[in-house]
Design a protein that fits this description.
alpha/beta, Hypothetical Protein Ychn, Chain: A, five-stranded parallel β-sheet, 5 strands
Length: 167
């Protein structure tokens, strides 16, 4: 028997595992969009994604230039991967990306986290990754609700209409 039952999206869990500007903002945009749509939103930051919620690094994220075959400059010009390794190139590309984001009125990471929390979203850090990087609760932005295990994460995923998104 085929199950054609459909469920409306009620809850989303977004996992951010990378700390590049583009990966962190992808997670933040999706999280903020879910909150704005009235979807219960949980965000889980792990491994290098912890940089997005670590006070020391959150507003100093960089664009990945090396090994990014889809790298484009604003205006659509292709960016050869080999150039990414040259001194100053990553900083320049990051600066250009941030300027383009400012033109679109995209907030810095800390403000984005505050918007998500204010909308009812919950933000969590991965215990394994936090332990690995020797990070404590006080190292994280105040919007981080807790440091949780993967088992705790799965407990947040209950109920029909729940989706997990990995960025």
């Amino acid at each position: 028997m085929e199950n054609d039952e459909k469920y409306k999206l009620k809850k989303v869990l977004i996992i951010c595992s990378k700390g590049t500007l583009e990966d962190v903002y992808a997670a933040l945009v999706m999280g903020n969009g879910a909150v704005m749509e009235g979807i219960e939103t949980k965000m889980f930051f792990t491994f290098f994604g912890l940089d997005a919620i670590t006070k020391k690094y959150m507003n100093k994220l960089h664009t990945s230039t090396v090994g990014n075959p889809s790298m484009r400059m604003p205006g659509g010009l292709a960016f050869p991967t080999m150039l990414g390794g040259l001194p100053g190139v990553e900083a320049g590309v990051t600066s250009m990306m941030k300027k383009e984001m400012e033109k679109l009125d995209m907030p810095p990471v800390d403000e984005f986290l505050e918007l998500i929390e204010a909308g009812g979203g919950e933000i969590f850090a991965c215990k394994l990754a936090a332990d690995m990087f020797k990070l404590k609760k006080e190292d994280f932005h105040e919007t981080v609700k807790d440091i949780i295990t993967v088992g705790d994460l799965y407990a947040l995923c209950d109920g029909p209409g729940t989706q997990i998104i990995f960025t």
